[in-house]
From TrEMBL:
Entry keywords, A to Z: Membrane, Transmembrane, Transmembrane helix
Keyword Transmembrane helix: yes
Name used for this protein in its record: Uncharacterized protein
Ranges that cross the membrane: 149-168, 174-193, 344-367, 373-391
The species this protein was found in: Nocardioides fonticola
Amino acid sequence: MRAPKVVSPTREPRLFPATGRGLGIEAVRHQQIHVDERGAVLVGDGPRARVLAEARTVRRIVLVTADPLRPRLVLVGADGPLAVLALERYLVSPSALVDPDTDLVTSGAAAIATALGLRIEASRDDAVALTARLPVIGPRLPDDGARAAVARLTLALTLLSVVAVVALAVEPALLVPVVLLATALIVGPARIVDRLRRRALAAMTTSPEGLPGTDGVRRLAPTHPDARTQRTAAALLIGPRRIIEIHHGGETWFPGPAAGGVAAARVTPESILLSDVAGRDLGRLEGGWATDPGEFQRVCAEVGIRVELDPTPMADVPGLWRLEPWRAGEGPGRRWGLDTEEEGGVSVAASALLDAALPFLLVVGLLCGTWQPWAVVFALPGVVLLTIHVRGRLRLLRWRRGDAAFRDGSV
């Protein structure tokens, strides 16, 4: 496979993670891979940036396509591989999985190679072996110790369900240390889940404006009648260097015209198709932006995006990334379908164990009253932790229902 011959000279050397939802929005905003002015390859911007490869240390860039659905971009130094990137996780429009050369251009990988003064090489036999030596880098959700949380919650449930039954039959006074020990095991995972849920809600309710590259963006709200009640949950930000769609509890970032990305937008009755200066597909916008294209046209003209109005309905373009359309009578929560990790639940196992452990903790705390009436105070940890847990669930439930009261993540 040859490196792409056509690379826009103005394309910013940056890989944008594919659409992030819920807690995954943090990955989209803060785990972009780029080349800085020194020639170092970084993940993220500012003080939080992590160095993948120092300046002038990358000698080769190899595209490994042993699995066509999971292409790997390997940065190789003088002494071996420096980083292995999961290229498919940086493709907003994954049509390039069919055409890898196009993939490299639309993802920004070719621009990274150009910034490093290199060409992307064809997959070699040794490249497959290289990918096995390093963990694959891709946008990830924070888990804050999911495995440890599952282990602690499992032990807490065992104490509460087995030891508590024995203690109740033999000596009710033994319930007190059981409650205290179980509380010590549960409080850590419960705080982690609450913190991650707050972060997920904050990500969905705070604007990316002010982040690197978002200077000069203009905000547009959807104009489709079915979207009017969800204006606080959807927006389109258009600027010289970034185009950001906020929709269905997620964010998708595109490079703007000044970053060598979106140069044209084709507006159809169903969607808006984005393409670069060479006409390559970069993605598709859904959600009622095209209903009243006047303001969209004006903002695009200001930043240098050519807009074409096409009143003819068109069939779906194979391979284009696509958001769900607006549907009358349906709130966003019934279509967003955030999974447990995206909601901040650490993992499916940890969330299920926490749902079971907290009521058990409350019940066993109340059973301490069979020893001494005043001992029911040991139900207080269960009351506090269960209240925090339920409040976190209610915050997300209200947000999913499109409650406009959630204007920021501080609630």
